[in-house]
Amino acid sequence: MWAYQLGEPQGVPQWRRVPVPPVGPGHALVRVTAAGLCHSDLTIMDLPPDRMHLSLPMTLGHECAGTVARVGEGVDPAWHGAPVAVFGPWGCGDCRACRAGEENYCVRSGTLYSSGKNLIRPPGGGVDGALAEYLLVPDVRHLVRADNLAPHVAAPLTDAGATAHHAVKQVIAALDDESVAVVIGLGGLGHLASQVLRALSRTTIVAVDTNRHVVERAQDSGAHYATSDADEAARLVHELTGGEGASAVLDFVCLPGTRDLILAVAGRRARVALVGLGGADLSMGFATVPSGLTATVTRWGSISDLAGIIELVRAGRVEPQVSAVAPALVEQAYAELRNGKVEGRTVVLMSDVAALEEGAAAG
C-alpha cells in the first residue's frame, strides 16, 4: 500500500510502498478514504534529532475517516464495511481517565515530546498514521460510526472537531444568555469552536483573528462580533458586559500576544481553555489574573466529544470548512498550511491514490 512517511528527523516526507499491516485479535483495519492535515504534523516534521522520540520511518496523519475493511478475532463482524471516524488519542483503557471515558488524558499515553519507551502513541504521533491506504486500529472502541457523512467532512472531526467540542465543554458551565465568550483564532479549530458555542449555548461570541479575511467571514463560523485588533476586542467585551469581562475565553493560538488578550478580556470567575500549540504560558497567582479565574490546558477531545461533534454536523448545526486535495498534492498542501494560507482544514482524499501508481510507473 502507499503511505506518506517521515523517514528521518527534519527530513522530507515521501510517499512509499509499504506492507499492509497484519490484523491481530481485537484489531480493525480501516481502508482510509480521507485523512486530515494538522499543524502538529508540521511540529513532528520539524523535531530535531535530540527531541525526536518517535520511531521512524512513520506514516504521518492522525485525522482519519474510512471504511472497516477487516476485523480481527473477537471483534463483532458487524463492524465490517462500516463507515467510521477514528478516535485518535488512544489510551490504555484501564487507568482512571480511560475508565471515565477520557482517553485523551490517559496516564500512559505519550505526547510528541515524551521519551518513555512503553508509552501509548496515537496514529501519526508514534505509530503509523492515516496518510496511507490502510490504518490499523488496535481496538474498535476507537471507532465512531460516520454514517451519512462525507469522508472529507468526517476526517477533520476526529481532531479539529473533537478538540473544539472538548474546549467548549470546559467553559460552557460559565455561560448564560448574559455572558460573553471570546474565541481567539478562527483557524481549523477555532471556526468549529465558535459554531459549537453557538449551537450549545446562548452566549454572545466575540471572535479575534489577525487574518482580516477570516474576520470578515466570522459570522459564518457562528460569531456575533469579530475583529482583528486586540484592543478593539477588549473594548468591545467590556462594552457588552458592562465592564464585567468575558465569562469564557478559548485560545486556539497560545502566543504571548493572545495571553495578553486573555488578561485584557477575562472577567472574574472566567473559565479559560488553552488549546493552541504556541506554548505561551499564563502565570496564575494572586493579583496576576482576575480572581476566580480557572484555566484548563486541553489535549484533543474524548470519544464522547467526537460523537458529539459528529451529531452536530449531521444536524447541520456545525459546518466544517474543508478543502480537499489529491495525495499527489500533499507536500504542497503542507507548505500552504505552514505558510498560513489555509482557512479551515485540508483533507487528503485517498480515493485518488491511483495517481501515485501512475506517477511511479511514469518515473
Automatic annotation (TrEMBL):
Gene Ontology MF terms in the entry: alcohol dehydrogenase (NAD+) activity; zinc ion binding
Keywords: Metal-binding, Oxidoreductase, Zinc
Catalyzed reactions per annotation: a primary alcohol + NAD(+) = an aldehyde + NADH + H(+); a secondary alcohol + NAD(+) = a ketone + NADH + H(+)
InterPro entries registered for this protein in UniProt: ADH-like_C (IPR013149), ADH-like_N (IPR013154), ADH_Zn_CS (IPR002328), ER (IPR020843), GroES-like_sf (IPR011032), NAD(P)-bd_dom_sf (IPR036291)
EC number(s) per entry: 1.1.1.1
PROSITE patterns the UniProt entry points to: ADH_ZINC
Enoyl reductase (ER) domain sequence ranges: 11-348
Cofactor section: Zn(2+)
Similarity annotation: Belongs to the zinc-containing alcohol dehydrogenase family.
Protein name, UniProt field: alcohol dehydrogenase
Organism, as annotated: Intrasporangium chromatireducens Q5-1
